[in-house]
Amino acid sequence: MRRVLVLVGLVLAAAPVLPAPAVVDAAPPRVDGVVADPAFADSLVTSQTTAPVAVAALPDGRAVVLQKTGAVRIIRNGVLLPTPATTVSVCSDGERGVLGFAPDPLFTANGLVYLYYTRPSPGAPGGCVNRVSRFAMVGDTIINASEVVLLDNIGSPAGNHNGGDVAVGNDGYLYVSVGDGGCDPRGDSGCAGLNDAAQDLSLLNGKILRIDRTTGAPAPGNPFSGAGTAVCRTRGNTPSTPTTTCREIYAFGLRNPWRIAFDPNTGGTKFHINDVGQGTREEVDLGVLGANYGWPIREGQCAQGQNPLCPPPSPGTYTQPITDYPHNTTGDYITGGAFVPNGAWPAAYDGGYLFADGSPGRIFFRNAAGNTAYGAPFATGVGGISDMAFVMEPAGWALYYVLPGSNQVRKITTVLAPSAPSGNLAFTPVASQRIFDSRDLGADSGPLRAGTSRLVNVVAGRGVHRSALVNITMVRPWNNAFLVAWEPRTTRPAAANLNGQGLQVVANSSVVPLDADGNIILFTNSTADVVVDLLGYFDVTDGLGRAQAGRYEPLTPTRAVDTRVAPNAGTNDYTRTLDGSDGIINVPVLGKYGVAGDVGAVALMVTGVAAAGPGVGNVVVYPHGGTVPSTANLNTNGGADRRANLVVVPLGADGSVDLRLRVTADVVVDVVGAFTGASAPSDTAGTYVAIAAHREVDTRGPFGFFRPGKGGIGSVNPTAIPDNAMGITQNIAITRTAGPGFITAFPTGLASVPLVGNGNATGAGQTRSTMAITVLGSGSVSYFTSMSTDVVVDVTGYFNPATVT
Fold first, then answer.
1. Which letter does DSSP use for residue 83 in this model?
2. Edge to edge, what strands does the sheet with 163-168 contain?
3. What's the helix, strand, coil split of the chain in %, to 5?
4. Are 669 and 561 in contact (CB under 8 A)?
5. What is the pLDDT of residues 424-442, one digit of tens each?
């Protein structure tokens, strides 16, 4: 089957360029690592690192690997880059080295990263101290000259128990895990189990610290402040250190908190601490402000040196671990940990936490209910494992882990398949309702972090609903951004649903398949608040694939209204009234533009034209006479901004719709289709088939057969779309625009380009994306652009002809 796409007057593109499939080197595979669940596979990424002790993810899918001896390595598209991003001068004996890495939550905008490393300091006990610094990263290079020291002179007298992890919480502060130094840096207690540095509030050792990531100052709200406290961030941990309490402390009483892991599934700041035990028990702790975890008095759930059954601590003294395990029979030293991204792996793993022990080498899984089956590890045979982190690969999340002894970076992945075609569906509109708003989740509020995903429940139990029509809004991403929405537990599509530019509010409609629990999953490459509004469902039809209501009826795209022009009952039929400061535009639709008979909803391309002044505005579309939704269909961003979005809305009793304009001067309305009502005949024609989002055109890459400023004809082979399909749903993105202009999608074969728009740019260098429902002409769709631009087209489904073949 073959469909031809004709593009007139365009150049070049928008949605994200997704990396190629991972490539691994030719080192012999390990044969001892075993993942117990057959749904998973373990594979080699590279064996060309040297003593890799830590791994972290960047928002764009690159993995960062720390080599103990000071080099920071980058894995891009599954390949280890030959040149380190940087090499810092470190002490690397014992447990010292370059130990922790974290990207800034605004990394894609500012390029900032944080490193924890042990540096030489000849005058300090042990000759070395730990430091935390901020660096600027440009491309694959960390600029050493950009270093800003945030914490320094943290004691490392015995060479071990440095801790060494860093992470930015959703509260925006930098968290640092510091070990007790092995021996007391103050020298007034002892070493090993006698070392009381973790209880000494005048030292930074044995603590979780929380600081401002710009200045290194203690974070507001830390438990110790005021009289008798001091800023300790560089003062040193030695016998002569003053005894005033340190304001940087967030929690204390830890022996060697080697790794901390933050939960990406929540907008709140939730994290776990993997604290290495002395000789009896290993523990995982929940990060709690002001908590005292008890070392050296406590080890795990017991007094130091004891195993259960053991007395609990006295009420109000020490915070118990959320799980712990004994030495020898279960493991010897706890290492890395990672929360499972919800929706990425089979449902049993949602809400779970993975943590590793280096000897004999096991990965354990703590489920959402808080249970850990120590006798049945998630994985075995990973001797010496030091750290783990989830990395977003082209197909979805992979768990990377590092093995210092064998110089290997490996990954665990689950077997995923693309979202399956849905079968025939019919559209059911609903009153627009907000189902997710990262700005309004109470104590759990917070934006989606760059490079993380979030599972969003659309409906409790999918029932007859197979896909949802949602309106997704990114609120002020910090840089040029994209968002992908797809069915959980399926392959991440090589497509995008929404593109945004820095600090703007951008909305786009999308058809997203639902999983059996009624969920979708969202991923963004830029930190931003995200809002999801439900507009309707695509539901299963009868046993023969037929439906009455909800079948698409194709129409020739027609401009109905442009309020920049005076109304005319014949060709520009609308009325404008005011409701306070809001403009109300009423547009009669039934009986016009080909819309006739029993109509359940109409498909409109709506373009908002911003008010002259500053400020974010919006346009709300609803049936005339109906309740005004508390949601919006599109946003404008002041000045000359023009934004388009697809709106599917029922008609009011009189056959018209209302558009409420807030801080928006004008609106353009194009009619592009209709959906049948309940009294329509039962048929397969116009029923919808949802598919995994499929990239059809990208003028930046493999489909680059169009040239700037010229018309062109190129062919693609969309195997998922039948040649005789009535129409398609697609996401059309324009990017690297040469200047102001618009793009129009229309059925191939029309005598002229219709006066409608599917996306607008107001200047050069912009990226805009808009969903469209487009009728096919002779099995193809054509595009016209009024300016030079790249174009990316992702198809998400199609409408059946009268006879399905």
1. S
2. 163-168, 174-178, 207-211, 249-252
3. 5, 45, 50
4. yes
5. 999 999 999 999 999 986 7
Phi-psi category of residue 726: left, alpha or beta, with phi > 0 → left and psi -120 to 50 → alpha: alpha
- Can you point out the beta strands (E) in 322-406? 323-326, 334-339, 353-357, 362-366, 379-380, 387-393, 396-403
CA angle, residues 772, 778, 781, in degrees to nearest 5: 25
* DSSP bridge pairs for 498: 483
- Which of 290, 269, 271 shows the shortest CA–CA distance to 221? 290
Of 449, 403, 369, 346, the closest CA to residue 102 belongs to 449
Q: How far apart are CA 387 and CA 452, in angstroms?
A: 19
- Looking up tokens 């017991």 gives 302
d(CA 158, CA 191): 8
At 610-668, the pLDDT tens digits run: 987 788 999 999 999 999 999 999 999 998 899 999 999 999 999 999 999 999 999 99
Q: Count of CB atoms within 10 A of residue 300's CB? A: 29
Contacts of 775 (CB under 8 A, 6+ apart): 554, 555, 556, 557, 673, 726, 727, 746, 747, 781
Containing 110, the helix (H) or strand (E) segment is helix 107-110
366 neighbors 352 (Cβ within 8 angstroms):
yes
Phi/psi at 620 (nearest 5 deg)? -115, 125
Distances, alpha carbon 526 to alpha carbons 167, 468, 484, in Å:
17, 24, 12
* Beta strand pairing call for 505-513 and 582-588: unpaired
Question: Would you put residue 365 in left (φ > 0), alpha (ψ -120 to 50) or beta?
Answer: beta
Sequence-ordered list of residues with C-beta below 8 angstroms from that of 380, at least 6 positions apart, any chain: 33, 34, 36, 360, 361, 362, 363
- Let me know: does 300 contact 280? Beta carbons within 8 Å: yes
pLDDT digits (tens, 9 = 90+) for 190-218: 999 999 999 999 999 999 999 999 999 99
Closest residue by Cα to residue 293 from 384, 163, 173: 163
Q: What is the largest CA-CA distance in the chain?
A: 92
Structure tokens at 232: 């300790």
Q: Is 673 helix (H, G, I), strand (E, B) or coil?
A: strand
Location of structure tokens 């783990």: 388
Using only C-alpha atoms, the chain has a radius of gyration, in whole angstroms, of 29
Grouping H, G, I as helix, E, B as strand and the rest as coil, residue 429 is strand
Three state DSSP letters for 730-775 = EEEEEECCCCCEEEEEEECCCCCCCCCCCCEECCCCCCEEEEEEEE
Residue 742 token pair: 């618009």
For the range 67-70, what are the long-range contacts, defined as Cβ-Cβ under 8 Å and sequence gap of 24 or more? 67/97, 67/98, 68/92, 68/97, 68/98, 68/404, 69/97, 69/98, 70/97, 70/98, 70/117
